[in-house]
Amino acid sequence: MKELDLTPLERYPIDKITLSIVLDTRREKQKGYYPIKYRITYLRQQIYYPCIDILAEDYSALHGIVKRTDLVEQKKLILAGFENIKKTIQGIVNETEGFSLEKLNTRLSKGVKNSILTAFDNKIDSLKKAGKIGTSVWYSCAKNSIEKYTGRDIKFSEVTAEWLKKYEAHLLMEGKEYTTISINMRALRAIINDGMRDGIISQAQYPFVVKNNGKYQIPEGTGRKIALNISQLMEVFNYPISPENEKWRDLWVFSFYCNGANISDILRFKYENIVGNYIEWYRKKTVNRDKEKSKIRAAITEEMQMIINKYGNKNRHSHNYIFPYLINGLSPIQERMIIQNVTHTINKKMKAIGRALGIGDITTYWSRHTWASISRHEGVSLFGISKGMGHKNLTTTQIYLDSLSDDELMENAAKLPRRNNK
Questions:
Q1: What is the rounded average pLDDT of the residues 85-89?
Q2: Whole-model pTM above 0.70?
Q3: Separation of alpha carbons 372 and 382, rounded Å
């Protein structure tokens, strides 16, 4: 009987590290099968990663010319895993911090499948566990769009600049606006960034533009015009409405006077946020990702105070919410559901007003854009508007103010010299 070859199938040494493919014969599994494992040896320590189970004689056969179809496919799978771990090790070794078994384990646990959709699932799961429900929804929408486009899972290396251009063209064919495309692409870019940090792709494979390298540039959505002028705003304020629906409009009005604050922030306001004649808060949307935490301050106008007096919690303890929708102790998911329901109701009532006035479907977003637009019209500086909206840079504010209102266009036209018609 021919002696079996149970030596390592492959071996790769680099910088005091040795990666090997071995048959672990220390304990037989079932019916003579043993696990093939990837063994990493570093500073006299060893760790193993399982691959597949195989008969000892079949493992031996893998060392020579393989003729059996099933063994050919198994060998391809084994070597593919070996190459993936090899590249991951090479990537870590080339980093400034150097190699460690802990770092390798972290990279492999995240990226061993080299799957974009799995990476999305992991990201979504971690965001939910962190209570970032809104952000998890953003990633879920992007993942669903990509999965719909591809019809299958894809590897990180398949997301090239050319692939991104084709995906953008597909979204445009679906009737998506550049704002939506930008949102999806930014989520995908974050996933790709994680993959590059984990050594799944190299810097050379990175598909997005970096310092004008000619790769894919994420489009900037300009958005549609959703700001009211002053006369339209007065019409909205004075539109006759039933007493039971008035509170929903008043919450929209409160948002407008409160620097266009998002409803999600307003519902989280507590009485401790009121400091003298001002209300101060951090934007929920950006507070977790901003390194420098800066509060937004809005002067409490007469209109805002009247709405607080009319609808606010009567118990004004500092830890109580100003408006009686949220309560202390809610989970992030429960909190989000309540905020969504309130926002949906406000939008429903405001759309009805907008349609009746012939303005359009007014939503909570309109209060923010309207505050920015009217503030500019009344001479408030770009810096003042930017601080009031909680933006970190003026570029973001300029997106809100990108187009001139109809009133401004007419005013500018009126300033031009007139031609004398005879």
A1: 88
A2: no
A3: 9
Pairing of strands 17-23, 33-42: antiparallel
| pLDDT 10s digits, 200-219 | 777 888 999 887 777 899 98
Altogether, the residues listed in the chain come to a count of 422
Closest CA to 61 of 138, 3, 132: 3
Q: What 8-state DSSP symbol labels residue 20?
A: E
CB 205 within 8 A of CB 158: no
Q: Where are the alpha helices (DSSP H) in 112-202?
A: 116-129, 133-150, 161-173, 178-197
Q: For the chain, what is the largest distance between any 2 Cα atoms, rounded to a whole number of angstroms?
A: 115
- Among 89-93, 298-302, 306-310, 314-318, the least confident range: 89-93
CA torsion sign, 258 to 264 to 266 to 270? negative
CA 50 to centroid of chain Cα atoms: 33
d(CA 272, CA 279): 9
Residue 208 contacts by C-beta under 8 Å, 6 or more apart in sequence?
161, 164, 189, 192, 215, 216, 217, 218
Dig out the tokens for 211 from the structure: 């310092």
Q: How far apart are CA 269 and CA 311, in angstroms?
A: 13
Instruction: State both tokens at 26.
Output: 């220390």
- Is residue 199 scored above 70 in pLDDT? no
Quote the CA–CA distance of 216 and 208 in Å, as a whole number: 5
Amino acid at 107: R
